[in-house]
Amino acid sequence: MDVTAALPLPASARRTRLRRGWRKVGFAISVAIIVSPAILVFLWMLSLSIKTEVESTAYPPVFIPDAPTLHNFVQVFAENSMGLYFWNSIVVSGLATLVALVVGIPAGYGIARAQAHKLTVLILIARMTPALSYLIPLFTVFQLLGLNNTLTALVITHLVITVPIVVYIMAGHFETLPKELEEAALIDGGSVWTAFRYVALPLARPGIIVGTILAFIFSWNNFVFGAVLAGRATRTLPAAVYNVLTFEQLAWGPLAAAALVVTVPVLLLTIVIQK
Amino acid sequence: MAAVAHPGFLARRHRSYYLFIAPALIVIGAVIIFPWLFTVWMSLFDWTIGSVAHFVGLANYVGLATNQRFIESIVHTFYFTALAVVVPLILGLVAALIFHREFPFRGLLRGIFTMPMMATPVAVALVWTMMFHPQQGVLNYLLSLVGLPASLWVYSPTWVIPSLVLVEIWHWTPLVMLIILGGLAALPTEPYESARLDGASEWQLFRYITLPLIAPFLVVAAVIRTIDALKAFDTIYVISQGGPGTASETINLYLYLQAFAFYNVGNASAVVVVFFAIILALALLLLYVRQRARWT
Description:
Chain A is an all-alpha fold. Chain A has two domains: about 1-50; about 70-275, MetI-like fold, CATH 1.10.3720.10. In chain A, about 80% of the residues lie in helices and about 0% in strands. Chain A contains 14 helices and no strands. Chain A has helices at about 1-5, 10-50, 55, 70-80, 80-115, 115-130, 130-145, 150-175, 180-185, 190-205, 205-220, 225-230, 235-245, 250-275. In chain A, helix 4 packs across helix 14, helix 5 (about 80-115) crosses helix 11 and helix 6 packs across helix 8 (about 150-175). Chain A starts with a helix and ends with a helix. The model of chain A is unreliable at about 1-5 (pLDDT under 50). Chain B is mainly alpha-helical. Chain B has two domains: about 1-40, no CATH class; about 65-295, MetI-like (MetI-like fold). Chain B contains twelve helices and two strands; from the N terminus they run αββααααααααααα. The relative contact order of chain B is 0.13. The chains are: A mainly alpha, B mainly alpha.
């Protein structure tokens, strides 16, 4: 009895340490639970894309293929002209982003310095309108001009995505830049253009990089514009990937390979942006 | 303030700032404002591409008010939106609380967690289409591992919308997490210290300090999520095409069919205007909330 009475302090200390240990394990498990859906879906996509047709439709499912193959990738590039569609996507998203930068960077600067906040409201509303709402009028006009099924029509339509993003990000970014340096340039007799070109623009590089990457990603990911406006030869990658589904209902390997081809560039850009 | 002394100088400067904005305004006018006006105008016509347009006034809107299929699509949209807002909000809050703590590999794990939100929606939809497959899909296999009966997923009229929401949750919870994480990062430390001294439990700290302080961020996440869920198109179109039957046909899907399967531009434009009114109301709510929460 004396012995047990002498021990309560170390015992309770051990108990709290134990409880803290359990808490740590519980926390690790909750981290695993919350992260695993993200990683598992991508791994499943990868697994499907490097499996043979037999393995990819096997039941119970094969998680790690016995004989990984690149055959599915070869097939989508050879039979579904993925190379052409990849190039189409680069041209459309690249040009739409470029035009957005040319008009959007000065506009963001003008909005920030003239305090023209009504324009940001316009841009917010534009961002919130469903893409299909723009598509009907533009489709009708392109029909009249004979521009349907051309890359030009796609580039113009993708401006709906890229211009608001660039203007919005640049306006926000220029507002965080100090005005004093530009004021100094103006007092020294420089024009507003000189202040913008030689003072504000070099300082805005981080904002420009973020704006460029986000505009490119959102344009790259867009499906419905390509699906409606493009012809067989002018499809963008997401529309082309969807067509792999409709033509080969249960060819899971090529489907997963195509899905991976369209997603990987975006994930790489995301890693760049996080750095 | 010194500029007040030179009002002409300031006005000239302001005019040149508008020159900076002009090119973007021209582009926005052509690809955004023109389609808005065109849509409102076309909604007053009975016009199918390839035929002659007839002015019909508000007949398209009257037709929509009694169109059973359109009204059902609104119901589907709201059902989908409610689920696709509430669940990501709760999960995003939990995830944000987890990622707010310090632990090994936090940056890497957060990067992995946010990957889905950047992935191309069509690619995501295709992978989920394969996972939902009732016979060979991996989801039914996982259900069988834990002893649950197989589900028809998107092939069942009852389960199609919850299944599509599952994709939406996977895709967009990271965005909610990032918004709330931003709120958590801005929290002051003093209230916690004094509350701990008063012997408050972890739950009380969360309930009475954290939650009220991050409430503005939760509201912003909720509104952004509401708008995105209303706009959802790619995943629904790829996975279920509004089916089986019309069980998962949302406003956007109905709109797509009217416009690009039936080329019924007049009617589709009226759908756009009604849809736009719903979204605009929420956009104004977002701005109102932003102002109140001073969120930037």
